[in-house]
Amino acid sequence: MKFRTCVALILLNIIAVVYMYRPWPFSVVLESLASTSELYFYVALLIISVVLLWSTIPKPRVDPANKAVFITGCDSGFGHELAVRLDRMGYHVFAGCLAPDREGAKSLKDAASDRLHIVPIDVTDDFQVLQAVKYVKDHIGENQLWAIVNNAGVAAFCEIEWCSVQEFQKIMDVNVFGTVRVTKGFLPLLRQSEGRVINVASLAGRFTLPAFAAYSMSKKACISFSDALRQEMRKFNIKVITIEPGLYKTPITYENYLIDRNRKSWAETPTDVRADYGEEYFDAFLKQVTISLKQARPNVMEVVDNMIEAVCTKNPSYRYVPYWRYRLRAFIISNLPVYLSDKLFAARFPVIQPESRKSKSPKTPTS
Ligand SMILES: NC(=O)c1ccc[n+]([C@@H]2O[C@H](COP(=O)([O-])OP(=O)(O)OC[C@H]3O[C@@H](n4cnc5c(N)ncnc54)[C@H](OP(=O)(O)O)[C@@H]3O)[C@@H](O)[C@H]2O)c1
C-alpha cells in the first residue's frame, strides 16, 4: 500500500476514534476549542484524508495498443528501465542507444519483446537524429508515435574553475541541444497523434549547488525549453511534461567516474589556479563529492514510475518530482531567500580554506 494511503487511513481512524471516545490528549484539545472550532478541526482532518486518498487512486490510462514511444539514452539507468517496462505494457518501444553494440543495448534487446527496436542515436549529431526519425517513420507501420522521452544526459560534479569550457559545452550539447534536436525531429509525427514530449530535467534545474554549475545550467535550460514548448504546442494538443528527479544511483552518478573526470580536469587547469586552491583543497573537495554521492537514492523505480505515469495517464501532470522528501525540500528551498539557501548549501557541502586564503585575516569573506 502507498505511504499516502496509509496516512489517509490512519487519519480517518483517528477521526473516528476521537469523535466517538475522545481519549486523552484529544479530550483536552477538544475541550479547549469552542464547538465551531471543533467542527473545523474534524472538517480539516477529513479534507486532508480525502485529498490523500484521492491522490492515490490510480489515474485513467491510455490504451497502449498501436502506440509507439521513442526514448533516448536507453543504454543504462532510467531510460533502460523505462524501455523494458513500456515494452512489457504493450507499447512499441524505439529505444535510442548511444552504443547499440555495447552490453546495455544488448541486454535491453534480450529483456524485451520483438516489438522493441534498438535505434542508434547520439543526440549531439544532427545526422544521427535525422536517421533516427527516418528509422521510426520506416518501422512504425500502422502504429502512431505517442510519446518521445528525452532522457539522454551527462553530468559533471566539478567547481567552475577547473571545469573546462569544453566540458560546459558538452553538457549543454547533450542535455539541452540534444533535447531540442530530437524534439524538433519528432514533432511532425507527434502532431499526427496529438501525443506528448517528456523531458528528463532535474531538481538541479530548479536550484544550484556548488560544483553543479554546468549541470544545473543545462537542466534549467531544459526546463525553460519545456515551458515554452508546452505553451506553443497546446494549440496542437501535444502535452509537454518534465521529470525532475533528485539524486539517484545510476551510472551518471558513479563515484569513480565523476572523481576521475575531476582529476582529469584538475590536471588540465592552469598551474596558477591550482596553486591558489592547493592540492589539500582539491582532495577535500573530492572527499565531499564522495560523501554527497553516497546520499544518492537507490530506488530508481520511483523515477521510472513517474516516467510511466507521464507516458501512460490520460491527464498527466506538467511536472513530476519523484519522492516526497525531495518534493518537500524543493518547495522549501525555492521559497528561501538566497542568503539562507546559500548557507544551507554551504553547510551541505563544506570545504576547507583554499591555499591562497590561509594567510588572510579570518574576517575576509571566503565564500
Ligand atoms: N541519476 C540521477 O541522480 C539523476 C537526477 C536527475 C536527473 N537525471 C537525468 O536522468 C537522465 C537519465 O540519466 P540516468 O540517471 O539514467 O543516467 P545514465 O544511466 O548515465 O543515463 C544517461 C544515458 O544517456 C546516454 N547518453 C550520454 N550521452 C549521450 C548522447 N550524446 N547521445 C545519446 N545518449 C547519450 C548514456 O549513454 P552511455 O551510458 O553510453 O554514456 C546513458 O545511457 C539524464 O538526463 C540525467 O541528467 C538523473
UniProtKB/TrEMBL annotation:
InterPro entries in UniProt: NAD(P)-bd_dom_sf (IPR036291), SDR_fam (IPR002347)
Membrane-spanning ranges: 40-57
Xref: Pfam families: adh_short (PF00106)
Gene from which this protein is expressed: LOC106069102
Similarity remark: Belongs to the short-chain dehydrogenases/reductases (SDR) family.
Protein name: 17-beta-hydroxysteroid dehydrogenase type 6-like
GO MF, one annotated term: oxidoreductase activity
GO biological process assignments: steroid metabolic process
Keyword vocabulary terms for this entry: Membrane, Transmembrane, Transmembrane helix
